[in-house]
Amino acid sequence: MGKSEILGKVAFVNHEKKYAMIEYEVHGKKKTVRGSIDMKLQKDLKEKKLIAKAHHFMLGDMVSFNLKLADKSDKMVAVNINYLYNNALDMIINKANTSNSLKGYLKVADDKFFVKEMESYVFFPVDISPWQVLPTEDELNEPVLFSLDHPEKKEKAIAILSKVRYIPEYNAAIKLFKDKSIIDAEVYKVTPHSIYLNIVKDKVQAKIPVEPKALQEIKPGDLIPVRINFLSHKKIAVEKV
Predict the structure, then answer these.
(1) Residue 184, phi-psi category: left (phi > 0), alpha (psi -120 to 50), beta (remainder)
(2) Which of 38, 76, 136, 238 pairs as cysteine with 18 (C-beta 3.0–4.6 A)?
(3) CB contact set of 8 (below 8 Å; sequence gap of 6+)
(4) What is the pLDDT of residue 210?
(5) pLDDT score, position 73
(6) Are 215 and 179 in contact, with CB atoms under 8 Å apart?
(7) Which CATH class is domain 88-161?
(8) Beta-strand runs (E) in the chain
(9) Domain 168-240 fold
(10) Could you list the pLDDT tens digit for every one of the 241 residues in the chain?
């Protein structure tokens, strides 16, 4: 840490307005300063090598930063905010590695869903399926059960909600996958390398590779028999039969 850098702890985060309040000490006296945590700004700082990496800031994050006068006031603001570590996050990760069943509150910030862990208030981004029925406003701030996907990668840990609703077309795709059914899939787009297919209406779609010789013979609206050979909550793969 450079001589002009200050060590502090994130005491408050407003993800919607993209700022954080940081507590720090000067000669034994506690002070608080505000700083921007806008992701675009962080990526710019990373490109300029002023911070180590862009980070989704959470309560309890230990950070280093610089102080400067705000452009339009006489107040000091925190700049070049650099994430160091978070002890609360480490505790949650350790818990997830032994019993991956956690409780939190569903939140939304910057049009993205997060879970705020109930005891530590640490935020985790929620894994959203392309075929998921998104949580409603009534479900926000309500308690939820969740687990962490790949908790060993703590900086990239993602919350998996225990209860998720899917669109009917995805549920239909699950049945087709389990039954190993042959599907007459409609072509909706053709590119030099792939044929794009509607598997269940236009809600569940997939693609297959194609040889250049066959491209001229295939056009949107054609039907191609395929079978689903892989299906998860995020991806689908099909094979021609």
Answers:
(1) beta
(2) 38
(3) 22, 23, 24, 33, 62, 63, 64, 65, 78
(4) 83
(5) 76
(6) no
(7) mainly beta
(8) 6-14, 19-26, 29-36, 62-69, 76-85, 102-109, 112-117, 123-125, 143-149, 158-161, 182-190, 194-200, 204-209, 223-231, 236-240
(9) OB fold (Dihydrolipoamide Acetyltransferase, E2P) (2.40.50)
(10) 455 889 999 988 888 889 999 999 988 898 999 999 999 999 999 999 999 989 888 888 999 999 999 887 788 999 999 999 988 888 888 888 888 899 999 988 767 898 988 888 788 889 899 999 999 989 998 999 999 988 877 767 889 999 999 999 999 999 999 999 999 999 999 998 899 999 999 999 999 998 767 666 889 999 999 999 999 999 999 999 9
Region class of 48: left (phi > 0), else alpha (psi between -120 and 50), else beta: alpha
Phi-psi region of 157 (alpha: psi -120 to 50; beta: other; left: phi over 0): beta
Specify the amino acid at residue 17. Answer: K
Burial of residue 225, with CB atoms counted within 10 A of its CB: 0-12 exposed, 13-18 middle, 19 or more buried? exposed
Tokens of 239: 């094979």
In CATH, which superfamily holds the domain spanning 6-85? Nucleic acid-binding proteins (2.40.50.140)
Query: Tokens 């956690």 correspond to what residue?
Result: 102
Q: What are the residue ranges of helices labelled H in 78-139?
A: 87-98
